[in-house]
Amino acid sequence: MNLIIMGAPGSGKGTQAALICKKHELPHVSTGDLLRKNIADGTELGKKAKAFMDAGKLVPDELVLALLKDRIEKSDCKNGFLLDGFPRTKAQADALGKIVEIDIALNLDTDLNKLADRMASRRVCLKCGYSTSAELAPDGKCKECGEPLVIRDDDKREVVENRLKVYAENTAPLVEYYKAAGVLKNIDGMQSIEAVNAEIEAILK
Ligand code: ADP
Ligand code: ZN
Hints:
This protein is of the alpha/beta class. The chain is 47% helix and 15% strand.
């Protein structure tokens, strides 16, 4: 099964992606995580991507596409994968359509006005990609690997606003794109983590 999970920044797609991948034993392919890993490792790609990410802008298509292709050509993606944070532009969606077929595009529907608060309390693990909120992790440690959790550089208020704008302009139109392709499934993303996950599981059954 080749899946996509879409939604605005802060919609909870990373959290849901991790739950889906664990249950269905699918590789979780998050371009955001891959980019942050490149930054942490000090690679050339990471150096190029950092300024765009810190400003809340999209990393140029050609950089992200090369990264994505590399990842989904690995053998663990042969029998399916879940894409999280990709595609984010029509050009990315077109390029993706040329290399693989997408079976289901899950879309987390959210109220964009309420997402800035969610992102302000987000805490992430840069080592394994685990993401949670400050309230759910009072000890400040990653539940998966024990590393200290950090605030993402792009979760600052000023940057968050820009990310939401970039989402509305570039990525929201992809909902119609996948609807037209007949693979779109809408989910109410303003519910609890458990309720959102239950809706998704009902679709994947
Ligand atoms: P969120 O969805 O919460 O914004 P991500 O981790 O998916 O978080 O993305 C963080 C940043 O990484 C984006 O703001 C963007 O700069 C960059 N990025 C991730 N995926 C892509 C992509 N497919 N195309 C362009 N930039 C991307
Ligand atoms: Zn971790």
